[in-house]
Structure formats: structure tokens, C-alpha cells
Write a structure and sequence with these properties.
- Three copies of one chain form a homotrimer.
- Chain A has 439 residues and is of the alpha/beta class.
- Chain A folds into three domains: 9-134 and 318-331, Rossmann fold (3-Layer(aba) Sandwich), CATH 3.40.50; 137-316, Rossmann fold (3-Layer(aba) Sandwich); 351-436, no CATH class.
- In chain A, 30% of the residues lie in helices and 18% in strands.
- In chain A, the strands form four sheets. A six-stranded mixed beta sheet of chain A has the order 8-9-7-6-10-11. In chain A, strands 1-5-4-2-3 form a five-stranded parallel beta sheet. In chain A, strands 16-14-15-17 form a four-stranded mixed beta sheet.
- In chain A, helix 1 crosses helix 5 (136-150), helix 1 (18-33) crosses helix 10 (312-331) and helix 5 packs across helix 6.
- The longest helix of chain A is centred in the C-terminal third of the chain and has 20 residues, at 312-331.
Amino acid sequence: MRLLPVLEGLHSAEAFNPGFLRAFLERTRALEAGPAEFQDALAGRVIATVFEEPSTRTRLSFESAALRLGAGVISVADPKTSSAVKGESLRDTARIVSGYSDLIVWRHPRDGASRLAAQAAQVPVINGGDGRIGHPTQTLLDLYTLYREWGDLAGRTVGLMGDLRNGRTARSLAWGLALLEARVLQLPAPGLAWEASFEQRIADRAGYALRHVRHPLFRTWTGEETARVLEPRLATQGWLFGDGVPLLERLDALYLTRLQEERGAAPRDGVYPGLRPAHLADPLLEQCLLLHPLPRRQELPEELDEDPRARYFEQARNGVLARQALYLAMLRAERWPLPELTPLPAGHPDAELGVCPNPNCITRAEGIPVPWRVAGKVQRLFLCAYCDALLPVDYAGCRSTLRLHPLHSPSVARIHPENLRPFRAREAAQRQGYTWSEA
Amino acid sequence: MRLLPVLEGLHSAEAFNPGFLRAFLERTRALEAGPAEFQDALAGRVIATVFEEPSTRTRLSFESAALRLGAGVISVADPKTSSAVKGESLRDTARIVSGYSDLIVWRHPRDGASRLAAQAAQVPVINGGDGRIGHPTQTLLDLYTLYREWGDLAGRTVGLMGDLRNGRTARSLAWGLALLEARVLQLPAPGLAWEASFEQRIADRAGYALRHVRHPLFRTWTGEETARVLEPRLATQGWLFGDGVPLLERLDALYLTRLQEERGAAPRDGVYPGLRPAHLADPLLEQCLLLHPLPRRQELPEELDEDPRARYFEQARNGVLARQALYLAMLRAERWPLPELTPLPAGHPDAELGVCPNPNCITRAEGIPVPWRVAGKVQRLFLCAYCDALLPVDYAGCRSTLRLHPLHSPSVARIHPENLRPFRAREAAQRQGYTWSEA
Amino acid sequence: MRLLPVLEGLHSAEAFNPGFLRAFLERTRALEAGPAEFQDALAGRVIATVFEEPSTRTRLSFESAALRLGAGVISVADPKTSSAVKGESLRDTARIVSGYSDLIVWRHPRDGASRLAAQAAQVPVINGGDGRIGHPTQTLLDLYTLYREWGDLAGRTVGLMGDLRNGRTARSLAWGLALLEARVLQLPAPGLAWEASFEQRIADRAGYALRHVRHPLFRTWTGEETARVLEPRLATQGWLFGDGVPLLERLDALYLTRLQEERGAAPRDGVYPGLRPAHLADPLLEQCLLLHPLPRRQELPEELDEDPRARYFEQARNGVLARQALYLAMLRAERWPLPELTPLPAGHPDAELGVCPNPNCITRAEGIPVPWRVAGKVQRLFLCAYCDALLPVDYAGCRSTLRLHPLHSPSVARIHPENLRPFRAREAAQRQGYTWSEA
């Protein structure tokens, strides 16, 4: 399988880098300032929206963006009429639809589906939301909504609230915030926090540290007065002067999310927390922008819609702009360049590692052994190359020295990622000629 | 909530006025004569069709009209993939879709949904059919079909036949015919006539009188030889010379409708009447145009399709033209002005009046207390501002004099509508400082 | 009912003729060479895709083709939202949709639906696949895929493999191959061969003979080493020198098809044959192009995708081009002429012949007595004019001489088809004045 080249697809917020995001935000602002110039920029092009999981708003936003640039749209809006009904593989569908269009937007219920579709397709594929792991264009519009207000995001504190575990929008946004040097305050509903390995990956990639802050309001939202915050390692000396856990004094934005009931999510004590009108009087939220990927439930009552801090409808509107900017970068790169994205290595399917441990991974549906990739600088991890699930790997070998180490050995961090090789058992490694180096 | 401004939306045929209709008919004819001029009139615009109730023909007609003017179309065609599945309110959906488009066409199973959507949306909303109460663009194309044949409609007699109670097309058309001074002959299937209050509202608004005419054919269609006709008060002296109920000699058009089975309708005696080839030989129908909103059932047999009086397929075709004319008036008003519509006041939700008595009203689904508006010149009525249901109001107060009257008191007709205030009980009014004036 | 004029519709590969096909192939190649020239060729036109049977790929291909020529698209993609839900006849839907569009692509689960829709519609109708009998645009793209490789198809040997009985693509392709003088090798799965009358019609029309060839691989695919081949009568003297059934030495293309499970198909012994990687090493397939209309199942394993002989994804891509060429011929005939198609006579519904014997015929759903047409030069057949089912006719009369003959009498072949009249019983003919001529 090939690596995904730059801007041949957009699959994961994890693949963003600061240069890409900053250029994207500036270009989106330019587009907002002068949309008429681009009215026919994609005339004659056809964009396909393949939505194998229902999502009216996302689909309409992508389609509106295409039409406003003069492109045509072909669409699969109803999963029950899709080719999967005739038992076709995602890869076949991707190959075929790429014969009909110049770019495909794919939404799929399986984790990692977008990457797999992109490998099969002959045209760029944008992830319109796949499974539980990512929704990168949502992140782009979320970031643009903040950028329009603030310019630079560095040093801002953004709270992510609600069902962090199951929602893909908050996960994707966390990557984006960290890359732009904003603080990521975690306000999960009870029992719905991220797994530690996800937090660790962000911290490792962005050079962030995990700290704690407190505020009485947090107890209402998460059940505890203390919350975890990811922030640049060097930028937070202020906290050190506090006695114990410092008090958070100002939140710049609060990103609310709904409970992902359709993924079986439930809060630990049966109550899903939300923002209440009374909370808005607290000094913590005095200048706090309110965002929500929508649709909402009770966590964001309609009484707040008229509040001057509410940005969630503007946020939805910004989605059209953000997607227009992406289309232009992908289909008219000669006029509208964006810096390269670091492609995530896609790895080779590895029969020895068996199937992906994530039952919702696209590789399980397609019958592919799990392909792996290396993540982490300080602490190496092996992840499924499609769904980012942590693989149950206990040993790492170095292809160059043929030495085998326990995964958590400090030696492993010194091996170049391209030389790393995962093993579940020492015997398997030894059969391939690796020798044990840390007896 | 704000009043609906002129041509920011089109929700009800009741809001039409003669000036608007006449200008619309003329402009539609101009469009038919020279469509090429408008081929790119809406280039760069995006029109959304949100159909939360299936209706292939109406959706396709609206979409074809948009495309023929150069606009793009985004569409929600399948209720099961809509946001309502995620539990979103109509108002939120309207706000969001209006961030993606320049105009929304909305079809919804709930009465009054279009008005509520328009209040939330930031762009114009056209009612593509909501619940049981109205289908104003169908009326525009019906009127255009007659206008193309006749020019002026004044003095023409148009029979409305079938399930008048449950069909929204015949109700909407009745308003349009009355405003253009045509006679409205009611030929309901047994047990499926309009409620008296609806007939009364038309008569009151248009200055019409209710009279009766007879013809042997009526018995076949309605079970009775005598039928009710609404007609201009002054235009019918001819009838006075007859002995008892006069015989109708000529019907200019017959508008057939099907039984609304999906709304639970059933004719009283189990038989739904229809037109038969033999009827067409009757002198009454000699020059009678045959219209039907389609789809049809047995009430309009296929044998009649080749009859030179049949206009129902042409009528469907005219829908594209009528919708093009509307789009132009709403999105290119500087080039294509139409006179103002009288906005229907939307009223404030009134907790004291409780919930709307119509179980299918959109306010019931959205959890809003019923907002009211005043209708009627001679006999004041309080209606639900969304679904037009008659509210159970027994007393009316005058905000200016703080006097309270029984609703049917002649004094009430002399109070300016803007000063009227509805009450269900004298005590509630007295608590607000009204004094009883007619002991 | 009227005859279907030239290129007012495209309903059946049987209606193709060699001149049409050759001109189509050349023009499609010209379009592929210079697509930019046609980018706005259909600006202002609206094409409707009405898919009453789900088929994502075919719909997207037709829609992409329309958009790439600048046309707009209106679409019915979900059968459950179609007018049929309100009980509308196909003819009414066709009349109405033709008021909204300039051309309709229709897919329908009933045999012959496309022809019936075309008769009712006011605009050209293209068969996007109806029932079990035909899929003519698939044939055009299949032929184009071969033409791109070979130029002339004459003398080439093409194997059709799999569920020949129930699949419409192989049936349609057989007509096209025969008209272009290619050999049609039948490789049906056990129990899933064509009925003899279908094979006979092709042979009769194209002047082909039925012969047999053998190859050991055939046994794997069909259960028998000998296979039937249709080929030009004069071009096969080579075979005569063999001893018994000659060995086939070279197959130029193999067209695989999947089992039509949704039509209740099942192979005789429960095993559906397919191509295996090992087969590709056989000299028979050394230069054999691999085609498949897709979606595929196990009959075409993914391991073959990288084989240089695989053409099935290119084949799918060619569908857009083929459909563009058709649209241009139908909507811009002044710029893009194609030779005339021989219209199939549609016949008059004939109450005496009763209902069509094919339970899936569109006439059964619409309640129409079966209309007939005459097929065959050597052996006259009476077929249902919609679904091509063989009608149970035992006698043929001559309208000119009023003589009645047994259908298989040699005299019948000498009567001009327009004078032929079918009868199920001698008595019925005699009542109409025919006299028995062959006692």
C-alpha cells in the first residue's frame, strides 16, 4: 500500500501541522473576503459525496461549498441504496466512484474507512467523518471560528465538554488546538473521558505537559472540581506559584458536545451535564465563546441562543467556507497552494499481529490483517494504521541491529521509527533472527 | 418572534393579495415567453430543498426550476436521513441550513412548520407543503394554468371536488380564486367538506357571500344535488330570478383531488366519487377545463387523458415556471419585483392559551405554547399563528380601553385587531385589569 | 400507442444496428480525446434520473456524465420516496417528470418499464436498467472498453460467464457483440444458461450460426468441457477441419457476471464458478481482457486487480464517457448526429392475447393487456412488445389475404411482418373472417 501524498486526502486532524493550519486559516479568511472571485473556480469538476452514515448537515455543507465554486455534485445520501447492499467492498466502491468524480467526500460508520478508501481511489478523498476517530474538516471550521475572533490561538484556553470518549469532533479539535499552542481543558461527562493513551499522544506530539486546574463550576460539568489541561510545557510557569491545584480564572471558549447515544454511550450516573443560563454569569465565562458542533440536546438550551457569546450557528456557516478552501487547495493547487501535510504512514498489513483489536475498525469489515504505524517520540506506540487503535504489542525490534527490546525500554525511543518492528511474543521475533538485548 | 416580512417567505395562500397574484401571473407569462434570458439569473446561488415528508414531484419541480435559472441545489429527500433522527428541533435545522443556502424550500408533515422554519432561518423560506393547511406554490401554478387559458379569472366558476377537508391544495386554491374574484363551487365527497369556519374566513376576507346552486351531476359527486358556492356579493344578481336554488349552467373548470388516505381520510359511505367519461358529455362541462394536483387515483380515469379539456399534465409542467418566477422575485428582486404580501402576524406564544388544539400543529412537536393571531373583519376569530387552527377563545379584551367582551359581541368587530387580546375565562382577564363591559 | 422514433429513447440493445454502434464508438473516442470542448454543451438543460430500483454506481455515472456537459440533474434515488408510494402509475410519473426535464434516465425493477415510460413521456427516455431484460448503456460502455483496445471487434471471441439467465448485462452485450461480428461464447454457470429462444433470436437477427467449441477450463466454469458459441455463418470454416468439437485456442475477452441472488437465482449444484488466479496462466487466456459489470463477488477475486489484463475499473470509468456521448446525440443532435436506431414496434395492446406470460412484465403491474410485436426473419415469433417475453401463439393470420396458418408453417415467413396477426385459437381467427389455409 502506498503512502498518502500531500493533500491527496484529508483523513485525520492528527496529520495537520502548524504551517498547514495557519495557511489554511489565512486563506479561508481571504475567501470569505472575496467569494465572487471563486464562483467558477471549479467549473467542469465533479465532487462526489458518499455518506454511508446519515449526516444531513455535513453533507449539505460539503455540497454547498462545491456548488458555490461552480463544481457539480453527485451524491450517495442513503446508506440503504449504497453498493454495500450488493455486498461490495469499500475498496471497490472507492475505485469505481473515483472514476466518476474529481474528489470524494466520504462518511462511514467504521473507524479508519476514509484512509482505506483513499488508498483505493484514484482521486483525493476527504474524510467527512469516520467512525469514532476523526472528523478533520469539522476541526478546520472550528478553528476558523476561533481564528475569526482572535487571530492567533496561542495561549488561549479552550474547554472541551461532554462525551469526549465517543465524540470525534472533540478529539479532532484537540489535535488542532495543540498544534496552534492553545490550552486544551478537558471537561468530560462522568465516565466519558479520553483514554490515557490518546492524551499522551497529543502531549508527546505537541510537546505539551499535562497539568490540573480547578474551578467550582467544573464540579457541575464533570463531577469533580479539578480538571486536566494539556498546555505547552514552557508557557505555564504562572501555575507554579499557586498552592496546590491553581484556580482557572478565564476560559476563552467552551466547546460543548452531545452524548453519542447512537454509539452506545451513557454517562456514569445517568445524568449528562450541560451549560445552564446561570453558569454564564460566572466570571470564568465572561468572555467565553460558546461553540457546539450541533445537533444539540439538553446540554445547550435554546435560551442561550441570543447570548452574545454564542457562536454555534456562525460555526456551522463557517463550514461552507472551510470546505471551499480545502477544495481549492486540492483541485486548484496551482492557484491556491497550501503547505504539505505530513502523511501518516499507512504500513503493511501484518498477519502476525492478527486482527485489529478495535471491533469497529474498517479492517475488520474488509477482512484485512491489521497494518501498523509508529506514533510517539518519547514513548513509542504501535497503532492500527487505519483506526489508530493501540495495538497489543509488548516487544519492539530494530530492523537494522536485529535486537529485540521490551516496548517500554528507553532504548526503543532511540531507534528510528522506520526501523521499528512490532512483536507480540519474543519467540516470533527470535524466529525472524532478532536477539534479545536486555536480559 | 418577528413578523414575516414581504417575500422573505411564502407560507400560506391566505397571505396572497390580488395585486401580488396579478403581478405574479403576468411575470410568469413573461418568463414562459423568454426563458433564455434567465438561464444564468441565479448563477452562484444555492437553493436547499428540505423534504421531511416524501414528495417526489414537488421536490423535482422546485429543483428543476432552480437549475433552469443557473442555481445549485442541495437537498434532503429522505426524512429518515434528516437531522430529526438525531433529535434536532426544526428551528435549529432551519438556522443551520440557512447558513448553507440562499433560499430554502421546506416540506413538513406538521401544520405550520413552514412559518416556524422561516422565523428561525436567516434566508427566505418557501412552504413546499406543510401538514394539512396549505400548499401555496401549488396554488400559484393552478392559477397560472387557468390564467394562461382565460386571462382574467373574475366571474369564472371553478368547482373543487373530492376530499376538501383533508387536502391542502383545494384549500389553498380557494383563497387564490376568491382573491381573483372567481366563484368557488364546493363539491366535497360525502363527509369531507370544509369546516364552516374555513368557508367563513374566505367569505369574510374576500367580501364573498355563500349561495347554493344545483345540478343533477352534483348528486353523483357529493351525494346531493345542491352545492355551496362562494361568490362576490354583488356579482350574482342573476341567481335571484330563479325559483329556489338556481341551476348551474356552466362550469369553467373542475379541480379534482384524491382521497387523503395517508391522513386517515375516508368518505362517509366508503365510496369516493370521481369523474366518469359519461359526465363529460353533459352540457355543464362543455368548456370545462379539468385540473388535478396529481397523483390521481380512480377519481380521474386515464380514458380522460386525451380529452381536449384535460389540463393536468400541463398544470404539472407549469409548476416549474411558477417556481422560477417566485425564486426570481425573492432572490433578484431588483430585476424582478413583485408587490408586497401582507405578512400574517405571527403573535407571541401565549402561555395562558395553553397548547394548540390541533394535535398536528408544529407547536406541539416543538413544545411551544400556542401563539395567536386575529382573523376576520366582520366576525373576529383567534387562530393559531402557525397552523391556523381556531382557538377556543370565549372573550376578547381591548388593550386600549381595558374592557372585556364576549367574543361574538358586535363591539369586538369595532376594536382594532392590534388591540385585541384573547381570553378563555373572565377571571384571567380580570386579573390583568380588564373590566367586564356587557353584563 | 406510437412507435418509438429514432433516438427519442434507448431501451434495448436489440434495437441497435451496426451503423449506430460504429458511429457511437468513434464519437465516444472523439469525446475522450477532447472533453473540454463539451463542458457547456448542455448548459441550461435538466436531466432526470429516476431510479426505482437502487443502483448507486449506474446513477452516479449518469449524473456525472450530465454534470460534465454542464447540464443540471434532478434525481429520485430512493424507491421508497417515489410516487409509486402514493399509488401512481408509471405512465403518470413519466408524463409528469417529463414536464420537469429534457431527458429522463429510468431504472425500474419491471421488465419493459423503460419502453412504457418512454411512450408516456414527452422527452427522450434512456433505459438505466429494467427488470431482467436489458441494460443497453452498459452494453455501450462494455463495447467501448473493447473498442478502445482493439478497434474493430469483428472476429474477436468474447466469453460471457456466470449467471447468463438472470443477468441483463450479458444479454444486452450479446446483441452488441453479434451486431459487430464478434463471436459470443456462452459460459453459463450450471443451470443458468439462456433459454433457447433468446439464443435463436440473436442468431436469426445477426445471421449467426450456433456451433460448439471445447476447452478443459470450461469444465471448471460451466460443468462441461463443451460450450456453445454464436458466430458469423461464413467466418468459421476453420472449425470444420477439426475432429468433432474443435478446441478453442484463444479467448480475447472474458466478461464475468455475478449471481443475481436478488432475482432468486441459484446455481444448480450450489456452487457459483469464478475465475481463479491459476486460470490466468492458461494459454487460452494469455491475451484475454477481463471485464465485469461490477459489483463483484467471489467470482472475481481481488488478487486479479493488478493483473495487466484486468479492465473492469477502466470499464466503469468508461461509463461516464459513453453516457456523455448518448446525451449529446439525443439533446444536441444538430452538432452530434448518430445514425438512426431501428425502432421496435410497440404494437397495440391486444385483449385477446390476455395478459403477458411474464409475471414481472410492466404490463402486469400497470394492468395493460399484452401488446405484441413480430420478431425473427426465418422463424417468426410473437413477443410482448415491452418485456420481449415469448407469447403463447399457435396461429398466424395474414391481414392482407385473411388466410390463417400454423405459426411454424413456412408460409408464415413469407408474410410481411406488418401483415401478421397472432391468434391463440383457430376459432378466434375465424370469427374475424380468416380462413384456414393448410387443412
